[in-house]
Amino acid sequence: MADFHRLVKTSELKTDKLTNAAAGNLRSISYMSYDEDFDALVLLAFEPESDLIVHYLDGDVALLYEDDSMQIVGLQVENFQLSFVPMHADLNKTWTLSDALGKEYHNLGEMMVVVERFRPKLAQEIINAAKDIPKEFAALFAA
Amino acid sequence: MPNQFEVTDPRGRTIICTEDKWRWHIVSKHGKYMEGYEDEVKQAIQEPNPGIFEDTQRPNRNSYYLRLPRSRKYIKVVVNFSDESEGYVVTAFKTDSVKRGEKQIWPTSTDS
Predict the structure, then answer these.
(1) Chain A residues with CB-CB distance to B under 8 A?
(2) Are B97 and A53 in contact (CB < 8 Å)?
(3) CA atoms of B18 and B4, how far apart (whole Å)
(4) Where are the domains of chain A?
(5) Buried b or exposed e, range A8-28, using 16+ CB within 10 angstroms
(6) What is the pTM of this model?
(7) Beta-carbon neighbour count of residue A113 at 10 Å?
(8) Would you say the ipTM is above 0.95?
(9) Which of A18, A38, A39, B73 is most buried by its number of CB atoms within 10 A?
(10) Can you give the pLDDT of all 112 residues of chain B as single tens digits?
């Protein structure tokens, strides 16, 4: 098999930002976005301050890091609905809103409230399901 | 819907990137830093290096990689094909490796 033409080793990436944020010394955000066409979910802990680079781990999970600082700032999970979600029961339950289905929503605002309520849980379950990611992610999104 | 660009890959296939895709799915989702890379995205499709790879799970999806000079990065352009003559850009971003499991389909040993 090819060497995947890897140009940057995972060990070169830095986790200081994640560590500082998990310790409460740095403010983090919790930005989540799903691209339906690409079938990829992006989870960002910080607004990137330079080029955002995708660093593939094994499979569909990738770290996102700042090119200038090499600091890890987020995750990208590809083939999210096709294969990642079905492989993880807890995540599948949250993603498919199985606990929220059947309710009647009267407007978009009510739906947005539900989405906001599930967002932290979803982030935690993605992190739990993703292998080989820095442990600081779990600490940061555990709150 | 207007096109941002339309180019041809080395296999003679037409690849289209709509204006909507470029503005809302590439530049806004992968950061303002992709905004200045339209030429590189087009070049990745026209002259991919190390090549074109088939997606791990979607046979109708190809990834075009272009190694950026003087850096440790590639531009990756993901394209969906509805048939063998025309494809649409799904997304584009910078990466430091080819994704594990993707199968190189161009160039093949007979192309070089």
Answers:
(1) 2, 4-8, 33, 35, 37-38, 40, 42, 48, 50-56, 58-60, 62, 67, 78-79, 82-83
(2) no
(3) 5
(4) 10-139
(5) beeeebebebbbbbbeeeeeb
(6) 0.90
(7) 11
(8) no
(9) A18
(10) 799 999 999 999 999 999 988 887 676 665 556 778 899 999 999 999 999 999 999 999 999 999 999 999 999 999 999 998 999 999 999 999 999 999 999 998 666 5
Q: What pairing do the DSSP bridges indicate for beta strands A61-66 and B103-106?
A: unpaired
Q: Tell me the chain A residues in contact with residue B16 when contact means C-beta distances shorter than 8 Å.
A: none
DSSP A84: I
- The answer to whether the Cβ–Cβ distance between B94 and A54 falls below 8 Å is yes
SS3 state at B26: helix
What is the rounded distance in angstroms from the CA atom of residue B81 to the CA atom of residue B35? 24
Q: Among A65, A84, A98, A64, which Cα is nearest to A130's?
A: A84
